[in-house]
Automatic annotation (TrEMBL):
Belongs to the DNA photolyase family. FAD binds at residues 225, 270, 370-372. The record marks 304, 357, 380 as: Electron transfer via tryptophanyl radical. It comes from Bradymonas sediminis. Binds 1 FAD per subunit. This is Deoxyribodipyrimidine photo-lyase. Its cofactor is (6R)-5,10-methylene-5,6,7,8-tetrahydrofolate; FAD. PANTHER family: CRYPTOCHROME, CRYPTOCHROME CIRCADIAN CLOCK 5 ISOFORM X1. The keyword Flavoprotein applies.
Length: 472
């Protein structure tokens, strides 16, 4: 007979690949033995199945989590509803616990799973844990969700502090292994060709490394964050985004760790960015079409050019604009791109090339280790000008003047575009302006070793503005 203490409960790991501050895992462990489960569910994800860089991260993160669980994490692949149903029957499971996710496809799937489990007499319990506050909880006094960040932020900061993180549960003797579960390798997350050298050099996925990174930022008191966060060559930002996306660290842990430094403007600037993440999730929750449809319907009439050759040059970092190219190559090599450069590269695609933001978002989705449906969709719509709290369409970043301002000594550009490394700073941001003798001395042959600019900035800017006028 199954008693309360011997009963097996499922904790379904999803975007919460951690043991600390995991209320769902705590609840499952409190109720009896725990079958820890991870399901790779590409079937329900559809077009939003994880891209290549995310899969690279996931494999390593799962491996780290499995090690923390003494090798007892059970892997499956396929439709999560069917797999959970089969596990519940085979193990006589009474409760299934998970941490809530807010992607529209996950909400639809989880709702259906909850209904089916409940109908079968099994308790299905979802828990908060991915955000500081639930996405429906920060709303206008008059009702409805915020479309502009500043008032959203003000309202969020006026709330009581987020819930305190919970400690990891004692799991000794409680973990259940399923002999029929797959090996991690059977999820086929590893790249088929070895394109991941740069990712291996840059990142260490997993809870321990996420907590180390957070501790390092706290130890350094977020020094230089407020100003330095705009300079891609500086090491001022946290690089926590993929850890946050996969739930290796929770925003509540970050909030609590930064509490003692709360009065410091550097920390305030950092916390504000964390709240942009909350804002993106609130938008995605209230506007589930955000990843696929223009928020501003006037943009539906925009005549995107979508030239595939131009798109490919942007993807490959061969636009002829060094800062854009450095960003696109950083993305390909390391699975990330600095935030300022993301804005500049995205603006270049959408405005100077008039290519649909959804094509840019799809490339980021495949290449970013932090690819996140809420942040990626909200950010691309923001840059495109089609979003809620959007940058006005006429705000078109000039990649040359942005490079002079934010990479003044050219360190970032030289790192990712070695063929320009010997060009003096005076010409680095616009190699075309260099005299032939300087190019020759720097071993740069325009059109051969490095491309000429693929568009005229002034002209393409004007064309974008004209095209925008037609939509109004
Ligand atoms: C076109 C475009 C696409 C983007 N796509 C993604 C994406 O897929 N996933 C993603 O996590 N971020 C995305 N961002 C936001 C931002 O660039 C990254 O969150 C940031 O660069 C991550 O680096 P970090 O962890 O060092 O950030 P930090 O500056 O250290 O910030 C701390 C945390 O705050 C959050 N954050 C910071 N900036 C933003 C922002 N602008 N919007 C929302 N949250 C933010 C992140 O979770 C980040 O880890 C995108 C931005 C642009 C312009």
């Amino acid at each position: 007979m199954i008693t309360e203490s011997t009963a097996t409960h499922i904790h379904w790991f999803r975007q919460d690949l951690r043991l600390e501050d995991n209320p769902s895992l705590v609840a499952a462990a409190r109720a009896g033995r725990v079958l820890p489960v991870y399901i790779l569910d590409d079937e329900n994800a559809g077009n939003f199945r994880m891209g290549g860089a995310s899969r690279w991260w996931l494999r390593r993160s799962l491996s780290a989590l499995n090690a923390s669980l003494g090798g007892t994490l059970n892997f499956y692949r396929g439709d999560a509803g069917e797999i959970l149903d089969e596990l519940c029957q085979r193990f006589g499971v009474q409760e299934v616990h998970w941490t809530r996710c807010y992607e529209p496809w996950r909400i639809a799937r989880d709702t259906a799973i909850k209904k089916a489990l409940t109908a079968a007499g099994i308790s299905a319990r979802s828990h908060a844990g991915a955000l500081l506050f639930e996405p429906w909880s920060i709303s206008k006094n008059s009702g409805g969700y915020y479309q502009i960040f500043s008032p959203f932020y003000k309202k969020l900061r006026a709330q009581d502090a987020p819930d305190e993180p919970v400690s990891k549960p004692a799991l000794d003797g409680l973990l259940v292994e399923d002999p029929q579960a797959l090996a991690l390798d059977a999820l086929e997350l590893a790249p088929r060709v070895a394109w991941d050298t740069g990712l291996c050099a840059r990142w260490e996925p997993g809870e321990a490394s996420a907590l180390d990174r957070l501790a390092a930022m706290v130890d350094a008191q977020f020094e230089d964050y407020a100003e330095g966060r705009d300079f891609p060559a500086r090491d001022s930002v946290s690089r926590l985004s993929p850890h946050l996306h996969f739930g290796e660290v929770s925003p509540r842990q970050i909030w609590q760790a930064t509490e003692p430094l709360e009065a410091d403007p550097q920390v305030e600037a950092f916390r504000r960015q964390l709240c942009w993440r909350e804002f993106s999730y609130s938008l995605l929750f209230h506007v589930p079409e955000l990843p696929t449809e223009n928020f501003r319907k006037s943009f539906d009439a925009f005549a995107w050019k979508n030239d595939p050759t131009q798109l490919a040059r942007w993807q490959q970092g061969r636009t002829g604009f060094p800062l854009v190219d450095a960003g696109m190559r950083e993305l390909w090599e390391t699975g990330t791109m600095h935030n300022r450069v993301r804005m500049i590269a995205a603006s270049f695609l959408v405005k100077n090339l008039q290519i649909d933001w959804r094509l840019g978002a799809a490339w980021f989705w495949d290449c970013l280790v932090d690819a996140d449906l809420a942040n990626n969709s909200a950010s691309w719509q923001w840059v495109a000008g089609s979003g809620t709290d959007a940058a006005p369409y006429f705000r078109i970043f000039n990649p040359t003047s942005q490079a002079k301002k934010y990479d003044p000594d050219g360190r970032y550009i030289r790192r990712f575009i070695p063929e320009l490394k010997s060009l003096p700073n005076k010409y680095l941001f616009n190699p075309c302006s260099a005299p032939e003798s300087v190019l020759e001395a720097a071993n740069v042959r325009l059109g051969k070793t490095y491309p000429r600019p693929m568009v005229d900035l002034k002209q393409s800017r004007q064309q974008a503005l004209d095209a925008y006028q037609l939509t109004r």
